[in-house]
Design goal:
The chain has five helices and no strands. By secondary structure, the protein is mainly α.
């Protein structure tokens, strides 16, 4: 039985290796659309979305959006998001370092320090 199963597996592997057509040819595995068509569809979608947004803005009496203005606005939003993230991470670092410092101070029997005292110490070390 073991030789029969081994022979069957060997036959299947050999059939796959020496078959004249590849698996992709057998399955007719090809993309449904070309990359150029996909890019053109994306550009058309963006143009349609921008036109729809501008038609709503015109009805409300607001200025129309341009692609450059939209890119600038996105850049400003991204910069603000990065700035808020950096501020949050800096605050988180201070809180975590202060907690570790206060844990060491408690172990030594010293009084804990506040966030303001710790920030003042950090600023003094920066100078």
């Amino acid at each position: 039985m073991l030789a029969l199963v081994g022979g069957l597996l060997t036959a299947l592997v050999l059939l796959g290796l020496f078959h004249p057509r590849s698996g992709a040819d057998t399955l007719r595995w090809e993309p449904t659309r070309s990359a150029e068509l996909e890019i053109q569809n994306e550009i058309d979608d963006l143009d349609q979305m921008l036109e729809a947004a501008n038609s709503r803005r015109r009805r409300r009496g607001e200025a129309e959006l341009t692609e450059d203005g939209l890119r600038r606005s996105l850049g400003e939003d991204l910069a603000a998001t990065v700035r808020r993230r950096d501020e949050y991470l800096e605050e988180l670092d201070v809180v975590q370092m202060l907690e570790a410092k206060n844990a060491r101070r408690r172990a030594k029997g010293l009084p804990e320090i506040t966030v303001e005292e710790y920030r003042a110490k950090i600023e003094a070390e920066r100078r």
